């Protein structure tokens, strides 16, 4: 089934590159007017120009309430409404637990978890006016399901998003706003592509489907949650990882 977002207005935080850029493209291809939000306004505008189809790019920092409110206000003025928020902006700098500073911790939690809270809160007044209000979070398998050395703070932030979601969806249900989350596995982004083919092959070897995911794979999962057809789905997650979390051991994968 192909889901249509014809005439719907969508904000994608962190949409200037990577997964957010993929979500923005899939939504634009499904007929939505897309607003890309990132700290670097020039990169957000460049991504929007590349997508075309009326997409716009704006500068805003998800760690700052005033910045988000101003940007979302501009989107509402330009598009006349906001129907969907894809709260996707996130960072993943590695730091080992024994040497992690408070600043390391705060930076990741502020962007990924507090940034989710602030983005959702800034969107609520706009989404309440929509007859198809949708919030789609980009979480991860890392934290909610798996662990990865160097990412205690990141894993906590990604698991925290799901805890946030499970109460947010209840509080917003009276406005018919749904809140759901996509949990990506290893997805090919510009950053990962730059790490070379050997690195990608090594990662692909741990995935039953034998390859990394694409940003469009995540975009299509987000599109389902944003669709009219998903109107009765809230507080739920979908893992998009090529089966990566399933093998009990390397031997199980080798025997498959
Ligand atoms: P990415 O390529 O590094 O892109 C991150 C995006 O977020 C950029 O547009 C960046 O633009 C924006 N951003 C960062 N900090 C921001 C802030 N404070 N305010 C506003 N925008 C901000 O990252 P990605 O790999 O696509 O990851 C996107 C999301 O997917 C994250 O939530 C990540 O946790 C999740 N995820 C990724 C993977 C993966 O394999 N890539 C797997 C699981 C989950 P500016 O720098 O201009 O702000």
What would you say this structure looks like, in words?
The chain has 256 residues and is an alpha/beta fold. The protein has a single domain, classed as Rossmann fold (3-Layer(aba) Sandwich), CATH 3.40.50. It is 45% helix and 14% strand. The chain contains 9 helices and 7 strands; from the N terminus they run E-H-E-H-E-H-E-H-E-H-E-H-H-H-E-H. It has helices spanning 18-29, 41-51, 65-79, 102-127, 152-172, 190-193, 197-204, 215-226, 250-255; strands at 9-13, 33-38, 56-59, 84-87, 134-138, 178-184, 237-240. A 7-stranded parallel beta sheet has the order 3-2-1-4-5-6-7, with helices on both faces. Helix 1 packs across helix 8. The longest helix has 26 residues, at 102-127. The two termini are 30 Å apart. The mean pLDDT is 96. Bound molecules: NADP nicotinamide-adenine-dinucleotide phosphate. NADP nicotinamide-adenine-dinucleotide phosphate (NAP) binds at residues 13-14, 16-20, 38-40, 43, 61-63, 88-92, 111, 115, 138, 140, 184, 186-187, 189, 191. Residues 13-14, 16-20, 38-40, 43, 61-63, 88-92, 111, 115, 138, 140, 184, 186-187, 189, 191 line the site of NADP nicotinamide-adenine-dinucleotide phosphate.
């Amino acid at each position: 089934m192909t889901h249509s977002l014809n005439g719907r207005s969508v904000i994608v935080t962190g949409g200037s590159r990577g997964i957010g850029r993929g979500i923005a493209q899939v939504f634009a291809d499904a007929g939505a007017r897309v607003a890309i939000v990132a700290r670097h306004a020039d990169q957000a505008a460049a991504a929007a120009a590349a997508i075309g189809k009326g997409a716009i790019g704006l500068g805003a920092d998800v760690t700052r309430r005033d910045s988000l409110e101003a940007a979302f206000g501009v989107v509402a003025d330009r598009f006349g409404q906001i129907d969907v928020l894809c709260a996707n902006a996130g960072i993943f700098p590695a730091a080992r637990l024994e040497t992690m500073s408070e600043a390391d911790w705060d930076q990741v939690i502020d962007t990924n978890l507090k940034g989710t809270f602030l983005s959702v809160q800034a969107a609520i007044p706009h989404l309440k006016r929509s007859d198809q209000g949708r919030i789609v979070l980009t979480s991860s398998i890392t934290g909610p399901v798996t662990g990865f050395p160097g990412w205690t703070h990141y894993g906590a932030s990604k698991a925290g998003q799901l805890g946030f979601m499970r109460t947010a969806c209840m509080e917003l249900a009276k406005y018919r706003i749904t809140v759901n989350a996509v949990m990506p596995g290893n997805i090919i982004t510009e950053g990962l592509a730059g790490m070379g083919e050997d690195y990608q092959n090594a990662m692909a070897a741990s995935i039953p489907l034998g390859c990394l995911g694409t940003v469009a794979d995540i975009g299509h999962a987000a599109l389902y949650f944003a669709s009219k057809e998903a109107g009765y789905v809230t507080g739920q997650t979908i893992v998009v990882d090529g089966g990566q979390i399933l093998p009990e051991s390397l031997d199980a994968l080798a025997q498959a």
